[in-house]
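hi! just following up on the protien thing from before. the input was this:
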Amino acid sequence: MPATNPRISVTLQPSTAALLARVCSLTGNSQSSTVGELLTQCEPVFERMALILEAADELKREADGEVQQIAGTFKRAQGRIEEQLGLCLDEWENGTGELLGAMEKIRRRTRKRTAAATGAGAGASAARPRPRTAAAEVTPPKRRRVTPACNTGVRSQDEKRGKSHPPTDSGDFSA
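and the predicted 3d structure came back as:
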């Protein structure tokens, strides 16, 4: 005769299986009926757990939808900002175009005057002023010997050659 209740197979830890066998031998019930009774008594807990898991799943689906909505809003806002930035850059170029043109005219005049002063032709390389850089304006240090701040037997060094010279008794370091 077929069973009216569904059957399941359960795998237990050895310690749990030993405890279940011990309880069943004392009560005289079978292991399957003891486990069935325990699970029936826990039915309200299982019902509550199922409701909580369903609610969590629904919240997750809603949150995913909201995340997609927020992402779309950010993309639209980024598009508007990029469009406004483009307009600002266009206005900047329109407003500064005349200034840049005037600056170019001044540079051309300076080049012509330099060429006329040196006597070179308009296409000569002398007419083009070299670009000024910070390194070009700095004069290199003179070659000299570095003397120590304290003369306590420390040797002075020639910067260029990297040679050490012992101090002399006369204080003359030119050796």
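Residues 42-117 form one domain.
Strands lie at 145-146, 156-158, 164-165.
cheers
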